[in-house]
Amino acid sequence: MAIHLHRGDLPADLDLGAAVAVDTETQGLSLVRDRLCLVQLSAGDGDAHIVQPDRSHYDCPNLKRLLADAGVEKILHFARFDLAVVERDLGVTMTPVFCTKIASKLTRTYTDRHGLKDVAREIAGVELSKQQQSSDWAAKDLSEAQLAYAASDVLHLHAIRDGLKTMLQRENRLEMAQACFDFLPMRARLDLAGWPDNDIFAHA
Predict the structure, then answer these.
(1) How far is residue 185 from each of residues 48, 80, 178, 194, 204, measured CA to CA in Å?
(2) How far is residue 204's CA from residue 201's CA, in Å, rounded to a whole number?
(3) If you write DSSP's letter for every residue of 29-44 in order, what string do you get?
(4) Is residue 40 part of a domain?
C-alpha cells in the first residue's frame, strides 16, 4: 500500500480509471459550520491519493474535473454527506455514484449495522481502525496515523461495492439502488438548503 499526499490539487496526469473510491474529511459533521479538509481517492489498486486543498480558495481544477467526470463512477460510503460537502466547497456535483451504505441497507436487512467498519468486515474481510475518526483534519501537517486512517476509508470500497452489487442483483434490488443513487445529488442539495432531517415524502 502506498499513500500519496497531494497539497493543493491532484497531478494533472494522474489516471484513476473508470471507477474511483472517494471519501472526505471535514472538521465536523455540520454542513453549516465545518469545511472540507481532505479528499481521499483510490483506483482500487492498493494506493490512496489524499488531496489537501488550500481552504482559502479551493482552487483544485484537476480534482474538480475528476469528481465531475460523468464517465467515472464515484464509490462512496454515506455518499449523501460527501456529495453535499463537495458541492458546497468545490462547486462540483459528483455523478454517477455508488453508495455502499445505501446498498448495505437494501441488502443486509438482517442487521442494523451499516457503518463502514461493519460492512468492510463482512463484505471485504477487512478490519478497519476508527481511532483517528475524531481528529484535527485542518492541521497543516497531518500525522502518519491520520493519513493511514484517511487512506483506509477508500482502499477497500471497490471490493465492498462488488460484494454488495452481487447481493443487490441476487435480491433483484439493483434497479432500486440505482434510483436511490441517482437521487443523491438532490438529497445533498436538500441538506444544504435546510431540509436535513425532514422526510418531505411523509404525510405529516
Answers:
(1) 25, 7, 13, 15, 24
(2) 9
(3) S-TTTPPEEEEEEE-S
(4) yes
180 in any annotated domain: yes
Q: Which helix (H) or strand (E) holds 4?
A: strand 2-7
pTM as predicted: 0.96
Q: Is residue 201 part of a domain?
A: no
Q: Which amino acid is at 181?
A: F
The number of C-alpha atoms within 13 Å of 13 and in the hemisphere containing its C-beta is: 0
Residue 178: phi, psi to the nearest 5? -60, -40
15 pLDDT higher than 70: yes
Give the model's pLDDT for residue 145. Answer: 93
CATH number at residue 36: 3.30.420.10
For residue 199, being part of any structural domain is answered with: no
